[in-house]
Target: Phosphate ion transmembrane transporter
Amino acid sequence: MRIALFVAACVASTDALGAGSAGGLDWRYFAAGGVSAAVSHGYTTPLDVIKTRMQTNPELYNGSVPLALSEILQNEGAAFLLQGLGPTCVGYGLEGALKFGCYELAKPIFKSVTPSDFANAILASCVAGGVAALVLCPPEDVRIRMVSDPAYARNSVEGFKRRVAEDGPLASFAAVPAMMAKQVPYTMGKQVSFDYACELVHALLVAVCSAELLETVDGFTPVIAALPAAVLACVLSHPGDAVLTQFFKRGPQPGGVAGSVGLLMKEGGGPLALFTGLKARLLHVIGIIWVQLIIYDKVKVALGLPATGH
Model:
C-alpha cells in the first residue's frame, strides 16, 4: 500500500510542482537565496581558485588537483587560495538573491503561457539564469583575472578599478553570451531538479514512514535532494564554464560563444577539452550547491515559507 502511494505521488509530481515550489513575488525567496549563495560560494573559494588555475593553465597540471594545489601553495602561498573572495561573496550574494527570487517569481507568470508546471519551471530557470549572467559578469571577470594573473591586482577593489580604468565600465558585459552559456544550464540543472527531487524524496518518506517518524526524518529531504541537483548542474554547465574562463582570459573570439567553443576544442584536441577541470569543479560545485540548497530551504522555512516539495 505504501509503495502504491509513493508511485502515485511520483506520477503526480510530473504534472505539478508541490505547494512549496509554487513561487510568486515574495521578498523571502530573495533573502533566502542571497544568504545561501553568499555563504556557499564564499567558503568554497579555494576550490574555485584551483579549478580556475587548472582551466587557464591546463598544460601545467595535466588534470591533477593535488598538483595544482601544491603549485599554488609553493609559488603564491596559502593566502592566494582566498583570491577573489570579496567579489565572490558580493557578486554571488546578489546573484543568488536575484536567481532564486526571479525563479520563484517567474513560475506563476509562465502559467499563462503553458499548462505544464515542468515547462513553466524550465522557462523560469532560463529567466533566472539570464538575470544571473548579467549580475555575475563584472565580479567573475575580475575574479578570473586575479586568479589567472596573480599580479593583476592586490585586492578586489583594485581589480575592479583597474578593469574600469583600462576598458571602461561596460567592458565586462561583453561576456554576457558566454556567461549565459554557463548560467542557464546551471540554473536549470540546480533549481528545477531540486524542486522535483524534493517532491520525490518527500513522497518516498510519506510512503514508508509512520507519521511520528516522518516528523523527524522529513527535515533531511533537502539534504538528500540537493546532491543529484548539484551533480546535474555541474555537468550541464561545465562546457559553458570552460568557455567563460577562456573568454575572460583571451577576450572575445570570432564567432562569439561558438568561436570560443571551436578554439577550445581545436587547442584541446576535441570535445573533451570542454570538460577540462571537471574533477575540481565537481568538488567545488557539489560543495556549493549541496550546502546552498540546504541553507536556502532552511532559511525560507525559518522565514515562514513552505519547505521545497511540500
Remarks:
- The first helix runs from residue 2 to 13.
- The CA atoms of residues 5 and 207 lie 6 Å apart.
- The two ends are 21 Å apart (CA to CA).
